[in-house]
Design brief:
The chain is mainly alpha-helical. Helix content is 84%, strand content 0%. The longest helix is centred in the first third of the chain and has 46 residues.
């Protein structure tokens, strides 16, 4: 707890200051439209009234995000390892990787709607495209940047096949793989919210769009705060997992 307070004292002070400004501006001035910018106490009431719907929306959103992300992990890491280890095939297809990876996933929405029978399957497809490229390219880059001594040591002790992949290649390339996963996770929430705001009947993004249509901005702000807290919690958990998996890099930095 003491360590947590030491790390986040300034973040906490900034949050308290912003909350104080929100209270002051909405309660003691007429700078903002009270309909669009309700006071914190009104938002808290709306939050309490909508808490069950917010959690239902969260579960609905995870029903889209989890399968898409899991598929991107399997194909992205597997494909990245293959192309990272096979120079010839990578050289042939690299122009296509560089062409398609920067394209916004939303460009494929018309085809997703036309080809997939349901909104859920189309959304999973778009989220898969969103999360796949950073993981795939991060894995390739991680394999290519493995230091030569790792390969020399592996050859010396005769590591091949699965042993080589799981004992040398994956651990050595894991920093860039996890970096790609983190980037994918961030992008996935952006695309998820956009998709749910314009085509879904439930979800974290749909909640905000629904109450926006009825100009109930106390519920809109409650949804934005809830979504922000959920995303923050997920990203913190990911960083904790990443730090645990890369414990050897932490030891190296402490030694330096």
């Amino acid at each position: 707890m003491k360590k947590f307070f030491h790390l986040y004292i300034y973040s906490t002070l900034i949050a308290i200051t912003l909350l104080g400004l929100w209270v002051y501006i909405t309660n003691f001035t007429e700078l903002l439209d009270p309909v669009i910018f309700p006071s914190p106490e009104i938002v808290v009431i709306a939050f309490g009234q909508a808490i069950l719907d917010l959690f239902k929306g969260f579960l609905s959103s995870m029903g889209l995000l989890v399968p898409a992300f899991a598929l991107a992990l399997v194909i992205g890491i597997g494909g990245g390892l293959y192309f990272g280890l096979h120079h010839r095939f990578r050289a042939i297809l690299e122009p296509f990787f560089q062409t398609f990876s920067p394209l916004p996933p939303t460009l494929f929405i018309p085809y997703a709607i036309a080809l997939f029978p349901t909104f859920k399957s189309a959304s999973i497809f778009i989220l898969f495209i969103t999360t796949f490229w950073p993981i795939f390219l991060g894995t390739i880059q991680g394999v290519l940047l493995i230091d030569k001594p790792y390969w020399d040591n592996a050859r010396t002790i005769g590591l091949k096949g699965k042993d080589l992949i799981f004992k040398v290649i994956l651990p050595a390339s894991s920093p860039l793989i996890l970096s790609g996963i983190g980037t994918s996770l961030g992008f996935s929430f952006i695309v998820l919210m956009m998709a749910e705001m314009f085509g879904a009947e439930s979800g974290m993004g749909h909640f905000i769009q629904y109450y926006t249509d009825f100009t109930q901005y106390d519920f809109v702000l409650a949804g934005i705060i809830f979504n922000s807290l959920i995303i923050l919690a997920i990203m913190i958990i990911f960083e904790k997992v990443k730090k645990r998996l890369l414990f050897w890099t932490n030891l190296k930095s402490e030694a330096n």
